[in-house]
Amino acid sequence: MLALAHTFPSHQQLRIWDTEAVDHRATHGASHGEKVTAQFLLSVWNQWHAYDAGAFDLFEAVRVWDEEHLKAFQAWASDPVCF
Q1: Buried-state track 54-68, b at ≥16 Cβ within 10 A, e below 16
Q2: Which keywords accompany this UniProt record (predicted)?
Q3: What is the span of the domain harbouring residue 48?
């Protein structure tokens, strides 16, 4: 998960994969794009858990993410097993 998170510019500062920390940061001071990225990462980790950050919405992400974030998502979507 850390390798996947590091493909997104807004999450390259993570040093360990900690769902509670990612969820907390998404709801306390993160930009909208950072929050959407956290929602995506958390949904990959466990799509059935109700995180405080909320559920991931692909249509919102496509609207909010910049080119680098979209490229990171596209890389994952083209081969999710590699992460």
Answers
A1: bebeeeebeebbeee
A2: Plasmid
A3: 2-82
pLDDT at 83 over 80: no
DSSP alpha helix (H) spans, the chain: 2-6, 19-27, 32-45, 58-64, 67-78
For tokens 């929050």, the residue is: 35
- Name the token pair of 40: 């995506």
Predicted confidence (pLDDT) per residue in 12-56, tens digit: 999 999 999 999 999 999 999 999 999 999 999 999 999 999 999
Q: Rounded CA gap, 73 and 43, in Å? A: 13
User: What's the domain count of the chain?
Assistant: 1
